[in-house]
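Can anyone check this?
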Amino acid sequence: MKITVIILIFIVVSGVLQHITHETFHIVVGKLLGLTLISAKLFTYHGGSKVTFKDEEEVINNSDECIPKKWIIMNLAGIIGTTSIAYIILLIYSLLPIGYIKLFFWVLSAMFLVTDSGYSVICSFSKSGDLYLVSKYFKNSIFIKIISISMLLLNIMIFISIR
């Protein structure tokens, strides 16, 4: 029972850390690219989070599909950044001795590996979320879907292979 409670706490903490990390990448990269942050709603936007930049609606509703590359980079920053952090967490996990800290990093790596790659698959098929502008930029290319599915499968295989 004790280990179950500990794992549940680790899952909640890992989920919160992953979510905040994902949104932070959007904010930092967006600001570095010169975008003006209007709001960051963490856990209060329809049960999730939303980072809003100035002129975002105009870019999203742009019918001529001429999307500035800085918006593509900012949209990809959450998924790519969080996945990169996941690989660093795996490296740390592999160096730790057996114990609760290693268990925490195991749960943390699962959360960081699977959630964003799973989210990218959903976004690529639903034409929403972080990949909406990316899909629009690449004219809804099948390659966005293939890359998203491949990343999810790769991350699941990596997670399954760790001990």
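Reply from J.R.: I decoded it. The helical segments are 2-32, 56-60, 69-95, 100-126, 132-137, 142-161.
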